[in-house]
């Protein structure tokens, strides 16, 4: 039986409480064994000292026993400490889940800020990216690229039906795979616990691309191997009294000279190894989980994660473990003096460089596709997690326009704003029957016009990204979305608010004239509000005429009640409105969309309620509708 959002929140809270209790017990155990280590040292020293004075063999046994118990306590303390840390990370993950469900923005991880000067046709208008945005609410990725994948999907200007349906199928499958998603998030969170930012794979891909010489020249491995064999043989013959001491000393000098000759290679090797140890440590655990997870045979998830199902020698676990092992071996090269003599006796760096080059070649062949699959999986898990936290949301039905028949181009039932808190959220139905239709929305200030426009736009973005929408149902075809809701002026470029608005509206018309692949779906809030009443009315009238009946459809909100008469001139214009009520001196809104033009206005009511004057000596009588205020 499908659970409700409230039930899932309660389940998350219970999980947090259980995990917190387990973490507290682990920490107590860790502290207990930490004290046991101290006691093993102190008591072991005292008891051993006494027993050594009485009976030496017994004292030796006491020393060995103290060392063994210290080692045991240390091992237990580390195990319990590590377990407590893992539980702490898991609690953090579930607390973030609760924050996302409750829209507690202060406890939802941030995402990169959006550009306020962006020319994107709806990024700023619909709060797609940046703080308090749809991207921040959805994003559960631990990689920078996974987060960018999600943002790119939400900002898609020309949606692709096949891609949408493919993502929807994966999101539908992943939504039920709660254990898989949570375990993947846990592994990602634990392995990136010391990072202040998202994991960025750009440096790894650049490192793989810098491969002018994939393998060191063979002589750089052959020469030190020969020198090592000869030197060790001479030392053996010297020990047997066959060779004089000068022979191994001369050979040692030759080996040291070769080591000095290859010092530059050693410094480059250490830089490579240091980078590997830092960058690949996080990937090993994550990719290992994806490699060994028991996928359902024939599932889309198994198909997506197929790149991880390699032969053992070519798989991510084996490769990344090998790279880390070579990186640890290469750390000896950090001490130049020690490395000088180490490489004089053994072909240490030559062997590591040769093996590192071979492993790098395997990484070049496989790592990009592993990373690509991981990035896409993270973006898909973000959408699936959003669906899981909001079980009342639904996956929309997106179909090609030619397959709609007589059905509306867009029809949504109980459409809601996904960035508004569920408690008290008002939903509305919306429908666009034909191409060229214009929904003209009038209404009072604060009645819900702008919120409604964003509601439609945000749900279309979610639908085209392949995610769930805040609706009981949504059937739509493909549109190219464009908005003029939040226009930003530019001091640096010398744009006034009105000119910035004109530029945005011109972009919509220019795109329409450019014969876009899909019909334009426009959302325009308070058209031409940056100019005076007379010119605004003329400009609005002309602009709506230019849109009606064209390769587009959408909604326009306005305060100009004179524009409602356009429905008498153009059959494509449909009037809708939001309205307010004044009850016992207080303004009240129900945020419900109604058909027809708005019968009321509330600017003077708001002024009067806030104590501002609305009359002057010789002014006309107060309008009748204000008497109730």
TrEMBL record:
Parts forming coiled coils: 2-29
Transmembrane domains' residue ranges: 32-49, 55-72, 221-239
InterPro entries: DNA_mismatch_repair_MutS_C, DNA_mismatch_repair_MutS_sf, MutS, P-loop_NTPase
Keyword Acyltransferase attached: no
Tagged with keyword Transcription: no
Top-rank lineage group of the source organism: Bacteria
Domain DNA mismatch repair proteins mutS family: 436-616
Keywords on record: ATP-binding, Coiled coil, DNA-binding, Membrane, Nucleotide-binding, Transmembrane, Transmembrane helix
Pfam family, one: MutS_V
Entry-linked PANTHER family: DNA MISMATCH REPAIR PROTEIN, DNA MISMATCH REPAIR PROTEIN MUTS FAMILY MEMBER
Name of the protein in its database record: DNA mismatch repair protein
């Amino acid at each position: 039986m499908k659970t409700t959002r409230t039930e899932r929140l309660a389940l998350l809270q219970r999980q947090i409480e259980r995990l917190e209790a387990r973490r507290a017990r682990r920490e107590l155990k860790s502290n207990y064994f930490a004290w046991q280590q101290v006691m093993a040292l102190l008591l072991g020293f005292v008891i051993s000292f006494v027993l050594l004075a009485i009976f030496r063999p017994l004292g030796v046994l006491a020393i060995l026993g103290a060392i063994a118990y210290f080692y045991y306590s240390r091992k237990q303390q580390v195990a319990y400490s590590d377990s407590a840390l893992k539980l702490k990370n898991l609690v953090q993950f579930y607390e973030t889940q609760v924050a996302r469900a409750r829209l507690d923005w202060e406890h939802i991880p941030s995402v990169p800020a959006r550009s306020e000067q962006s020319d994107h046709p709806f990024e700023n208008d619909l709060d797609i990216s940046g703080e308090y945005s749809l991207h921040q609410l959805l994003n559960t990725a631990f990689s920078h690229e996974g987060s960018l994948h999600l943002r790119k999907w939400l900002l898609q200007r020309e949606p692709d039906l096949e891609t949408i349906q493919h993502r929807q199928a994966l999101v539908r499958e992943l939504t039920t795979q709660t254990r898989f998603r949570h375990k993947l998030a846990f592994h990602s969170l634990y392995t990136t616990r010391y990072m202040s930012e998202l994991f960025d794979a750009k440096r790894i891909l650049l490192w793989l691309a810098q491969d002018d010489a994939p393998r060191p020249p063979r002589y750089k491995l052959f020469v030190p191997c020969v020198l090592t064999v000869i030197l060790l043989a001479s030392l053996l013959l010297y020990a047997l009294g066959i060779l004089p001491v000068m022979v191994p000393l001369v050979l040692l000098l030759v080996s040291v000279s070769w080591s000095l000759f290859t010092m530059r290679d050693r410094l480059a090797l250490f830089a490579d190894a240091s980078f590997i140890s830092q960058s690949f440590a996080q990937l090993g655990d994550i990719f290992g989980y994806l490699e060994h997870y028991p996928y359902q045979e024939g599932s889309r998830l198994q198909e997506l994660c197929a790149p991880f199902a390699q032969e053992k020698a070519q798989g991510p676990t084996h490769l990344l473990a090998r790279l880390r092992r070579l990186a640890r071996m290469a750390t000896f090269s950090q001490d130049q003096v020690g490395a000088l003599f180490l490489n004089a006796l053994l072909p240490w760096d030559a062997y590591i460089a040769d093996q590192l080059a071979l492993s790098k070649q395997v990484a070049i062949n496989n790592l990009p596709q592993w990373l690509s699959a991981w990035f896409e999986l993270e973006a898909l898990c973000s959408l699936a997690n959003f669906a899981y936290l909001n079980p009342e949301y639904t996956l929309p039905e997106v179909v090609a326009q030619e397959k709609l028949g007589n059905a509306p181009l867009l029809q949504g039932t109980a459409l809601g704003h996904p960035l508004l808190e569920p408690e008290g959220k008002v939903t509305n139905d919306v429908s666009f029957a034909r191409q060229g239709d214009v929904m003209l929305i009038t209404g009072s200030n604060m009645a819900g016009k702008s919120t409604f426009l964003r509601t439609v736009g945000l749900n279309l973005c979610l639908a085209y990204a392949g995610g769930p929408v805040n609706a009981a149902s949504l059937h739509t075809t493909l549109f190219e979305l464009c908005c003029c809701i939040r226009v930003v002026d530019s001091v640096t470029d010398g744009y006034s608010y009105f000119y910035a608005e004109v530029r945005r509206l011109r972009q919509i018309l220019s795109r329409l004239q450019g014969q876009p692949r899909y019909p334009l779906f426009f959302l325009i809030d308070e058209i031409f509000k940056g100019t005076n009443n007379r010119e605004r009315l003329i400009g609005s009238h002309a602009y709506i005429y230019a849109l009606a009946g064209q390769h587009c459809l959408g909604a326009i909100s306005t305060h100009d009640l004179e524009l409602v008469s356009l429905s008498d001139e153009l059959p494509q214009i449909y009037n809708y409105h939001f309205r307010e009520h004044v009850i016992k001196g207080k303004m009240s809104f129900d945020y419900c969309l109604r058909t027809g033009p708005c019968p009321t206005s509330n600017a003077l009511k708001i002024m009067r309620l806030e104590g501002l004057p609305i009359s002057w000596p010789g002014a006309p009588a107060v309008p009748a509708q204000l008497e109730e205020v």
